[in-house]
Amino acid sequence: MVSVKPLQPEQLFRRCDPKQFTFETTDDLPDLTEIIGQARATEAIHFGIGIQHEGYNVFALGPSGAGKRSLVTQFFEERAQSEPTPSEWCYIHNFEHDYKPHAIALPAGMGSVFQRDMEQLVEEIRNSLTSAFDSDEYRARRQDVEEELQEKQEKSLEEIRNQAKEHGLSLIRTPGGLVFAPVRDGEVLPPEEFQKLPNEERERLEKNVEELQEELQTILQKVPVWQRELRNRVRQLNRETTNFAVRGLMEELRQKYEKFPEVVDYLNNVKKDVVENASDFLPNDESPDDESGNPLAALMARARQTSSRMNRYQVNLLVDHHSSQGAPVVYENNPTYQNLVGRVDHIAQMGALTTDFTLIKPGALHQANGGYLILDARKVLQQPYSWEALKRALESHQVGIESLGQMLSLISTASLEPEPIPLDVKVALLGDRMLYYMLSKLDPDFDELFKVQVDFEDQMDRTTENQDLYAQLIATLIRKDGLRAFDREAVACVIEHSARIVGDSEKLSTQIRDISSLLREANYFADQNSNRPVTSTDVKRAIDAQIRRADRVKQRMQENILRNMIFIDTEGTEVGQVNGLSVIQSGNLAFGTPSRITARVRLGEGEVIDIEREVELSGPIHSKGVLILTGFLGARYATDRPLSLSASLVFEQSYSGVEGDSASSTELYALLSAISEVPIKQSLAVTGSVNQHGHIQAIGGVNEKVEGYFDICMHRGLTGEQGVLIPTSNVKNLMLRQDVVDAIRSGQFHIYPIETIDQGIEVLTGIPAGEADEGGNYPPDTVNGRVQAKLAKLAEKRQEFSETAKDKAK
């Protein structure tokens, strides 16, 4: 009989000895300046930052809470400080096409200066033009022009007036216009007197009136030409006056920005526009009625028009770096389409939506241009069209502002088309591993745009050196959150819990979020107890409180077992019945629970029926584990004869899906017991997967499984016979609770490390498994011998039935 000794207490929990630390409290420790446990990720980030070729953006993948964002931000900011501050970007008015604003780049700090210069220029132009057009010189020159025209009109009318006088006519004004009338003794003849004139006289006067009327019409037709000439000359005068008034102001700005050709071209266009529209700068005290006769509406319309026209001289500073040092590092928490690529806002005025280039707003890509942008990959994918917009910007190396309506061709109204801005940015996406692999597989553009994979570890080696560094990490997190100092016993307790988080006594968790939460909660309980510094008691209380807040489901399931609503035996023996162990994840809490697994056998054709699979409650991994059992049985017991049994396996009282192969050894023990009719101790529970050679393989959640079965046994009363069989390869994963360790130390509970099925069946039955001789036969008083004998008997019966069936057929 192979002797399997239960594990000793020191093998169940790897303690962190506080005496290894040289400090008294975390106040004695310096801040951690290096990144621990993330050597691969650190190398990848350095590579991603250093390489400047196209497509080498970063995807940081790993579990949530591993510190991906903090680490990426830290490295980006360190690199950004040594890089030059990028250019600022401004949108300016396009005087040729109003709907296509120009984008110009200026050195850091110059954009805001340019913006203020244009604001000051507009004000100075307004003052200068007001003074120029109010000057006596301008008024005199304009008066000369107007008087010249007036003189020309009066001269022409005077000539025709003299001609009329020579013919006895007078040119008079009436409500209907200018007319000729006969006069006598300087008085206009009334119509009745005119009719009394001789016919010859009357005809002469009428002929003269007709001739003079034609000449008058000719003169009147020249009036619009003279007025146009007046307007042109006044306009020319205004241009000369405006040009003279603004020339010095514009020349000063042109000299200031002579190194920036785009700004100089813009200033030249501004000067031309000011000369053409000088009236926009002049005060207008008139309040003409609009077509509806509403003077207030007309005044508001004029004010809107003037304000809109004055906006074209403004500068929209889209990206401002005047106070920046180095390259920008931007994290966008809400990466909607507009928050990424920018937007064009609208203003509601009098029931209509209006916009102009001053209402263009930047997106995260604009803000991070020339630097680094950090995004949460899941958030980007959750926002409609954000992922496509990000890829389009990275592929085209430019960011253009376009509304979703325009992009999808849902609207055809005229809108702004801002000039795209060249894009030079390093993007880092943060996400879990599954998301990374899905994008890599399903999106053909992904691998071309995000070539740098930064894979974060969720655990690190638990060496003495790393434990010292971990203590520094704890001290750093404590100071970062402004918590009380922790004594070295409390630090040791945190390190032990870190190993328990990863379920491995030889590893430590790199889940910084979980450790930070524990530190804050332990600080809370220390504050409640007025402890300073924080002690191990406070840490343990915080851990217990975390479990207490999340273990409602665990409590209910244990209660159902203890009330015998779910059948689990912890004493006695049964044939074909074993206590299996599984892990249930309930939110952030994982806990173990036992399940009864039973097997029944009968004569058949060598098939093992998994009832869970038949009713589609079994996952593929569990189904694979059951199929392995058939291979094991056939290879060990039926190499020279048919495997002539039919067996059925089931998780009793299982009403949800079963997945994983950690119960495959348990199912095999149940089968061997059912075939051999050897009872199994119900005081023991089993976990571990098995291969076709009968070797027990490692499983996950070993701590939770052991503690789940221990809790049931403890509530029913520990007898000293109870225990759990685990794979030997899982011994290094044990970080059990203190009460479990204490029970094992006192001999009330046991944990057996198992390497093979033979070892396990001996522990479960108390009967030797048996070894095969040279002929492949097992001793009859062993479990293997009984199984072999039972299968041989079933094969003989099957042969008899086959022969009987043949005889009947004849």
Q: Which spans have pLDDT < 50 for at least 5 consecutive residues?
A: 285-293
Structural class: alpha/beta
Strand content: 15-25%
Q: Total domains, how many?
A: 4
Number of strands: 30
Q: Given the structure, what is the number of helices?
A: 27
- Rg over CA atoms, rounded to whole Å, is 48 Å
Layout of helices and strands:
Layout: H1 39-50, E1 58-61, H2 68-81, E2 88-92, E3 102-106, H3 110-133, H4 136-166, E4 169-174, E5 177-184, E6 187-188, H5 191-196, H6 199-256, H7 261-276, H8 295-311, E7 316-319, E8 329-332, H9 337-341, E9 343-344, E10 347-349, E11 352-354, E12 360-361, H10 364-368, E13 372-376, H11 377-382, H12 386-396, E14 398-399, H13 404-407, E15 421-422, E16 426-431, H14 433-442, H15 446-449, E17 452-455, E18 459-461, H16 464-480, H17 488-502, E19 507-509, H18 512-528, H19 536-550, H20 552-562, E20 573-574, E21 577-586, E22 589-603, E23 607-610, H21 611-614, H22 620-637, E24 645-651, H23 664-676, E25 680-681, E26 684-686, E27 689-690, E28 696-697, H24 702-716, E29 723-727, H25 738-745, E30 750-754, H26 757-765, H27 783-809
Parallel strand pairs: 1-16, 1-17, 8-13, 13-16, 21-26, 23-24, 26-29, 29-30
Antiparallel strand pairs: 2-3, 2-7, 4-5, 5-6, 9-12, 10-11, 14-15, 18-19, 20-25, 21-22, 22-24, 27-28
